[in-house]
Amino acid sequence: MNPVPYRVMTVCTGNICRSPMAESVLRRRFAEAGLDGEVVVDSSGISDEEEGNPVDRRARAVLADAGYDVPEHRAHQVTAEEIASRDLLLAMTARHARRLRTLAPDEAAAGRVAMYRSFDPAAPAVAGPGAVADESALDIADPWYGDRSDFVEALAQIEAAADGIVEHVRRALAPRP
Question: In angstroms, rounded to a whole number, what is the distance separating the alpha carbons of residues 169 and 99?
């Protein structure tokens, strides 16, 4: 077991829908993979518009219906200090990724920003042969403007990438002192 936990942050716009959904999914997946004590997962938003608000009721309901624990949560805006202290920052959209890279205090921190869906083996490729034009092809659409089905779709996209994230972190943990 590593003495210092690997720190993962999921990031969306207001930190009330997608990023707390991803946080809940990843916490469970890391626990199931036996990495519960070695990985810490939290979430934030790029905006302060929802500061202090709980998880959206629709996101909470979809998570609960899927059997996930929904921890107590208060939305907050990501800080440069948080970006610097995380090993992996998972953006829900290309816009979020750009903002995180802009806020990052150095190139190393900016390099730890990844698109959440880039870990989904069925998602479009954004690098290499046959790649799509840009990261926006990996966006998880904002369900806030929709109905329950939009939250269900967002959860499905989040779940589809979760195992890839777990494997990425498992590999990253292997060589750590």
Answer: 23
